[in-house]
Amino acid sequence: MEGGMTPERPVGAVTQPKPSRSPRKRRPPSGHQSQRQNLSGEAGLYAALDLGTNSCRMLVARPKGPQFEVVDSFSRSVELGTGLEATGRLGHGPMARTVQALRICRRKLDDHKVKRMRLVATEACRRAHNSNEFIRKIQRETGLRLEIIPTEEEARLAVISCAPLVAPETEQLLVIDIGGGSTELVWIDLSEVAPEARREAILGIRLGPVARPGVRSTLGQAKVVDWISVPLGVATLREQFTDVDSDAARFALMSWQFEEHLQGFLPYQTPAPLANFQIIGTSGTVTTVAASFLGLRRYDRNKVDGLTMTSLQVDTVIRDYLTLGPEGRRSDPRIGRERHGLIMSGAAILQALTRVWPTEVMSVADRGLREGLLYAQMSHDGVLQKM
Q: Which CATH number is 163-366's, of 3.30.420.150, 3.30.70.100, 3.30.930.10, 2.60.120.10?
């Protein structure tokens, strides 16, 4: 993808997942068409699968009060987007790794007898010329039918996943989701929503297919000021600057390159709010920065999810990464072996965002698309209690 590409807000229909598996004779778990059949009792489990540019991840959960309880989970780095920037196609090796991971997911779905599920693929499959062929291959070899969701839906689900972290005093909210192939930003005005109703308003948020300057889509009194999907994530941004030898120069170029893509985002043209403004960041980049800030040598979700940081604290961690250099980051236990190669491109995106919109409250969300998928399904079925 060329460096001058502009953010897109495509309109796209969502296909319906319908996983099945032969040669078993019992009726297999299915997608949306039969999801309504099992809505009560202890067996009413839900599943959400996110096939991204780097990872394949799944959660199996049951409703519990206003949230949910995770029963099983799966995560594997499949690097599906490897080579996509250069060829425009998914490679044979990445596809084979992904199918192997999805076979494990299928076994877990069968073992738990999950009836309610949503299985989605995002940026790598949106961009690849051979993605439809790959989706058919997945269904043929695993029985799982994935839907390639548009950026609009991915952004909406990221917002929904963060609803429990919205502070009652927040009037202006920016949700950022830094993925492998794209970054979604959603700016929401909650100033006309009663403080006790703000979290609940987020669960029902809707995004218009095109967010034009001066036009707001609404649900009740929550206003989506604008949203955007920037086609730069930790993998795609890194690949654009592999020819730059200097670590510091490469980082600076990545950060400014990302900011250039924000020109069409309406809030970019207005001053940052000084009060009652909250950023919620959901991604491996944000949670890694938080773990580094806390000095965690072993990652602990309970300490990271919901942590708040200031823009200055974020910048301090990123400057520490630059001081460490590539070798130091590779051996730093706070970053981890799977993340060290991607952390600086993600940090470049995060620094650009906190430079444009400095805040005293950036909430760290160890949650994302999978959690959004689960909340959306459970909220639709009415099995969640009010927050």
A: 3.30.420.150
DSSP 206-247: ---SS--TT--EEETTEEEEEEEEES--HHHHHHTTTT---H
Q: Fold match between 32-152 and 163-366? A: yes
- Alpha helices, H only, the chain: 84-87, 92-111, 123-127, 131-142, 151-161, 198-203, 234-239, 247-260, 284-294, 301-304, 311-331, 343-356, 369-381
Residues 108/58, Cβ–Cβ less than 8 Å: yes
CB atoms within 10 A of CB 169: 12
Cα diameter, the chain: 61
Task: Using CA atoms of 87, 284, 282, 31 in order, give the dihedral in degrees to the nearest 10.
Answer: 60
Beta-carbon contacts of residue 86 (< 8 Å; ≥ 6 apart): 239
| CATH number of 32-152, picked from 3.30.420.40, 3.40.190.10, 3.40.50.300, 3.40.630.30 | 3.30.420.40
Domain edges within the chain? 32-152, 163-366
CB crowding 72-82: b at 16 or more within 10 Å, else e? eebebebbbbb
Place of tokens 């009726």: 27
Nearest to 258, CA basis, from 344, 194, 165, 382: 344
pLDDT one-digit tens code per residue, 121-156: 998 999 999 999 999 999 999 999 999 999 889 888
- Whole-angstrom distance, CA of residue 309 vs CA of residue 187: 19
Lowest mean per-residue pLDDT among 135-139, 158-162, 345-349: 158-162
pTM over 0.70: yes
